[in-house]
Amino acid sequence: MTQLQFLLNDTPVTLTEVGASDTLLDHLRLTRRMTGTKEGCAEGDCGACTVLAGRLTGDGLVYEPINACIRLMASCHATHIVTIEHLRGPDGGLHPIQAAMVDHHGSQCGFCTPGIVMALYGLWMTDPGADEAAIKTALQGNICRCTGYAPIIRAAQAAGAAGGQAQDALARERAAVAERLAAMRGGRITVARGADRALIPADTDDLAAALIDEPQATLVAGATDVGLWVTKFMRDISPAIFIGHLMKEISVEGDVIRLGAGVTYSEAAPVIARHIPQAAEYWQRIGGWQVRNAGTIGANIANGSPIGDTPPLLIALDARIVLRRGADRREMPLEDFFIDYGKQDRHPGEFVEEIVIPIHRQARIAAYKITKRRDSDITAVAAGIRVDVADGTITAARLAFGGMAGTPKRARAAEAALEGQPFAEAAFDAAARAITGDFQPMTDMRASAEYRATVARNLIRRFWLEQSEPGLPVRLRLTEGV
């Protein structure tokens, strides 16, 4: 097929001329003249461009806030895109979220307000009784320069208390929308604007076949990184194969979690919280909500970035990946996938299909992410730590770091300093000293080499403090009321 189809608010859209690098935000603002959705950063960071994307899943029709600025148009096929213009109350007036923002003075200049309203709309639909912590999490990906967040949080609480979800337009239209989206599904879609070409495979087998034919193609899942290649670096990504709708399988078999490479951070969050609860807080610091709704674990791995959020934790957990080329598959330890900066063990025509994560129910586990600001920021140093202890002795240690080398990498000298030693402070002090020989970090805009080395040592000591005395406060917290 050569037509891209989706719903835009209550209007069906069919496009035949779509380039791989075309963004949803440009389509909304320049083609449709729907200027309620704003461009602030053009990199999925500020949230001013937030819209909802409704897609069919195994659980039915799900709506999620996403960043329109880095959402490439080909990823919109068979989805329902909802913008600020579609919001309305049961009587046709202001939506409860909008009314609450007015009543609680949640806006000043207003530039960021549509994106904030859309993020809160997504929360209002799925968690109407959301507490303050949940509201703050929903707003991680929205930056407001002038209003301050207290009145916005009060507005979200008031809208939740007001209710009205059953009368909301998206709730009333859900069955009809799901039927229309299902009718858009079919075979492979190929669209282009001149030489800028996008391909949307029908299923994973079709992806395997397409990548054999065009091994040089750019694979695009959530575009949380590729989108910046387009908006910031003006890179030509054509031909691009869009795979964000594929490989969504999640299963837990015994002590093994299996995640399809197309599982997003948000989709994986419940299984992580259930089976690796030590990483649940870390998981919620991967980007903002919009990024977690779009970004996929497989792409975070395949991208090979030394500061990718998931590899340090997954390496510490002895995760493996399944690579596929055509009908052939091979499985390898995740740590072996990363060869050098920008170089991974992936052959032409091959793609990451599945991530296999052992569940270490008795191990001591932690995941840490160090950034300039707490929420929605790129990692300076990330760490995944797993220590197995039997009868007071450390029987195995896995310490993996991101941001410390050209690839996500284990700290083998630090591991050796721990293994076979008593589970005691002296062992972790020795490991902290030993890690100096594991890495030669670089200095860049995010952190100096000295800072990174100090942080890595201190994270090992922090792990000891947290594990030796679980109730011990190891973080600075704001005084209540400040």
Automatic annotation (TrEMBL):
<keyword id="KW-0560">Oxidoreductase</keyword>
<keyword id="KW-0408">Iron</keyword>
<keyword id="KW-0479">Metal-binding</keyword>
<dbReference type="InterPro" id="IPR036683">
    <property type="entry name" value="CO_DH_flav_C_dom_sf"/>
</dbReference>
<dbReference type="InterPro" id="IPR002888">
    <property type="entry name" value="2Fe-2S-bd"/>
</dbReference>
<dbReference type="GO" id="GO:0051537">
    <property type="term" value="F:2 iron, 2 sulfur cluster binding"/>
</dbReference>
<dbReference type="Pfam" id="PF01799">
    <property type="entry name" value="Fer2_2"/>
</dbReference>
<dbReference type="GO" id="GO:0004854">
    <property type="term" value="F:xanthine dehydrogenase activity"/>
</dbReference>
<dbReference type="InterPro" id="IPR016169">
    <property type="entry name" value="FAD-bd_PCMH_sub2"/>
</dbReference>
<protein>
    <submittedName>
        <fullName>Xanthine dehydrogenase small subunit</fullName>
        <ecNumber>1.17.1.4</ecNumber>
    </submittedName>
</protein>
<dbReference type="InterPro" id="IPR012675">
    <property type="entry name" value="Beta-grasp_dom_sf"/>
</dbReference>
<dbReference type="InterPro" id="IPR016208">
    <property type="entry name" value="Ald_Oxase/xanthine_DH-like"/>
</dbReference>
<dbReference type="InterPro" id="IPR036318">
    <property type="entry name" value="FAD-bd_PCMH-like_sf"/>
</dbReference>
<dbReference type="Pfam" id="PF00941">
    <property type="entry name" value="FAD_binding_5"/>
</dbReference>
<feature type="domain" description="2Fe-2S ferredoxin-type">
    <location>
        <begin position="2"/>
        <end position="87"/>
    </location>
</feature>
<dbReference type="GO" id="GO:0005506">
    <property type="term" value="F:iron ion binding"/>
</dbReference>
<dbReference type="InterPro" id="IPR012175">
    <property type="entry name" value="Xanth_DH_ssu_bac"/>
</dbReference>
<dbReference type="InterPro" id="IPR001041">
    <property type="entry name" value="2Fe-2S_ferredoxin-type"/>
</dbReference>
<dbReference type="InterPro" id="IPR002346">
    <property type="entry name" value="Mopterin_DH_FAD-bd"/>
</dbReference>
<dbReference type="InterPro" id="IPR006058">
    <property type="entry name" value="2Fe2S_fd_BS"/>
</dbReference>
<dbReference type="InterPro" id="IPR014307">
    <property type="entry name" value="Xanthine_DH_ssu"/>
</dbReference>
<dbReference type="InterPro" id="IPR036010">
    <property type="entry name" value="2Fe-2S_ferredoxin-like_sf"/>
</dbReference>
<keyword id="KW-0285">Flavoprotein</keyword>
<dbReference type="InterPro" id="IPR005107">
    <property type="entry name" value="CO_DH_flav_C"/>
</dbReference>
<dbReference type="InterPro" id="IPR036884">
    <property type="entry name" value="2Fe-2S-bd_dom_sf"/>
</dbReference>
<feature type="domain" description="FAD-binding PCMH-type">
    <location>
        <begin position="191"/>
        <end position="362"/>
    </location>
</feature>
<dbReference type="InterPro" id="IPR016166">
    <property type="entry name" value="FAD-bd_PCMH"/>
</dbReference>
<dbReference type="Pfam" id="PF03450">
    <property type="entry name" value="CO_deh_flav_C"/>
</dbReference>
<keyword id="KW-0274">FAD</keyword>
<dbReference type="GO" id="GO:0071949">
    <property type="term" value="F:FAD binding"/>
</dbReference>
<dbReference type="InterPro" id="IPR016167">
    <property type="entry name" value="FAD-bd_PCMH_sub1"/>
</dbReference>
